[in-house]
Design a protein that fits this description.
binds coproporphyrinogen I, about 375 residues, alpha/beta
Length: about 375
């Protein structure tokens, strides 16, 4: 065992930059905070080097490796938050499913769920503290190694998104196998979604206990659901997660901001802004001003530059960021992309994006 794998005492260093946490709560900040989904990733040469020849999930199981990968983008860019390096699919693994990362293909389940009877093969009562202990150790270690530079975000996949992977057996554009369950086996679908919700709640509470200062829930496959299916199979579970996590945290006097990101789920924006999350993350298909109108100042917003805008020249990136900031305003806003960075993106343009957010938001705030 690496010496960094040992649990460290939790007297964490004092936070020096709280702009992200303030923005989550709609409070005043000196600049608009910014981070990027997939900021730790293959677009960074140092990431490719660290990951070379190593199994993806073995990397996820090494707290020292996760810590290093989380810190890499922070050494290059003045991001206002770090997100722990891990993956949403560690939950199906903890439930007993085999998940492999296949080069050129992405995550693959050799034996996905096919019929409701297969639910019996799953570990429904997962000992989260034992099975996902490696994530908690990675969070504790990273929170220390960040030295209070910026807050650390923990995350999870949402129940519907995880269910979709568990049935599809990997990525899919239609999610038709998983949606077949919704229409053909609604009861079994709810049984699985409920099972996942219970595990997710414990998992998020464990992340906070380990040192996570904010939590993001990724409903990456919201876009495959229509409004009615979203109402039935996604939203109630998203709400349950936030409510249960917050109720539990309250008991110990803690209050950790939560972000919900339902990709392509614009039909659910009003509901998402009333589902106990402080922040709603947006993909790039939503206009900033209309998102503000539809959420009526109830929540902070996060997003939503088209990641492909990072292929533009730097001056154009500045112009796009300027419009985005003017659309969202500087209060209750966290700048981000509308989805993750792609491996072929130029790190220099990521730097230009971060710099544009900081510079233009300071300019707007100085005008006030
Ligand atoms: O070898 C590699 O480096 C593979 C690329 C990669 C990376 C960098 C994968 C495989 N996962 C990750 C890390 C990861 N995954 C993070 C790290 C923190 C950061 O953002 O910097 C996070 C937050 C995730 C979450 C995740 N994994 C999501 C939700 C976000 C999203 O993209 O919508 C999803 C859907 C996954 C599944 C997954 N893991 C990896 C891939 C290529 C995929 C998508 C597969 C597909 O559906 O096609």
């Amino acid at each position: 065992m690496d010496k960094d794998d040992l649990i460290l005492p939790k007297d964490f260093p004092k936070l020096k930059n709280d702009a992200f946490l303030l923005a989550c709560r709609g409070q005043e900040t000196p600049h608009v905070p910014v981070w990027c989904m997939r900021q730790a990733g293959r677009y960074l040469p140092e990431f490719r080097e660290s990951r070379a020849g190593k199994d993806f999930f073995a990397t996820c199981r090494s707290p020292a490796a996760c810590c290093e990968l989380t810190l890499q983008p922070l050494r290059r860019f003045p991001f206002d938050a770090a997100i722990i390096f891990s993956d949403i699919l560690v939950i199906p693994q903890a439930m007993g499913m085999d998940v492999q990362m296949v080069a050129g293909k992405g995550p693959t389940f050799p034996e996905p769920l096919k019929e409701p009877e297969d639910l019996l093969l799953l570990q429904s009562k997962v000992d989260v503290n034992k099975e996902l202990d490696y994530v908690f150790k990675a969070i504790t270690l990273t929170r220390h190694k960040l030295e209070g530079k910026v807050p650390l975000i923990g995350f999870t996949g949402a129940p519907w998104t995880l269910m979709a992977y568990m049935i599809e057996g990997g990525g899919s554009t239609t999610q038709s196998k998983a949606k077949r369950w919704l229409y053909r086996h609604p009861e079994a679908s709810h049984q699985l979604l409920k099972m996942l919700t219970d595990i997710i709640v414990e998992y998020l509470l464990g992340q906070v206990a380990a040192g996570a200062q904010a939590l993001q829930v990724f409903e990456s496959h919201a876009g495959c659901l229509g409004p009615a299916e979203f109402q039935e199979f996604s939203l109630p579970y998203l709400r349950d997660i936030a409510r249960k996590v917050k109720d539990q945290l309250k008991v110990s006097g803690q209050d950790v901001p939560m972000i919900v990101f339902a990709k392509d789920g614009h039909y659910g924006l009003e509901d998402l802004s009333q589902s106990h999350y402080e922040v709603v993350g947006l993909d790039w298909t939503i206009d900033p001003r209309s998102a503000r109108e539809r959420t009526g100042g109830k929540v902070s917003l996060q997003g939503n530059m088209d990641p492909c805008a990072l292929y533009a020249p730097k001056e154009r990136i500045y112009e796009i960021v300027k419009k985005m900031l003017e659309g969202f305003g500087t209060r209750g806003y966290i700048a981000n992309l509308g989805h993750g960075l792609y491996p072929d993106m130029d790190p220099e343009n990521v730097g230009a994006f971060v710099e544009a957010v900081h510079a233009h938001s300071r300019h707007l705030l100085n005008l006030k």
